[in-house]
Amino acid sequence: MKKLIIASTLLALSGLTLAHQAPATPAVDKREATQQERIAKGAASGQLTARETQGLEKQQARIDATETKAKADGKVTAKERRQLARKQDRASKDIALAKHNDKTAN
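-> structure tokens emitted (106 positions)
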């Protein structure tokens, strides 16, 4: 059920993106998907506690909001791309640290 909701939401959002013709940020989108997958795997394996998972998800939401704001004017500038890259670098580091600390969900 949850997968169906996520799939339908992604389909709807992709339709909106195509209709709006927002600037493309494929590198940002790919990293975002990879980081979401890392978080999901960490939560499923017990490497991440519920609190760590929640914090990492919030961080991903803030990155997504920054990306949306950057796209709002129809152009993602080099400065905005650097800002997104820095935020994603930090998120990647936070995911790694959270997955490899001594806290587990078990």
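Residues 23-99 form one domain.
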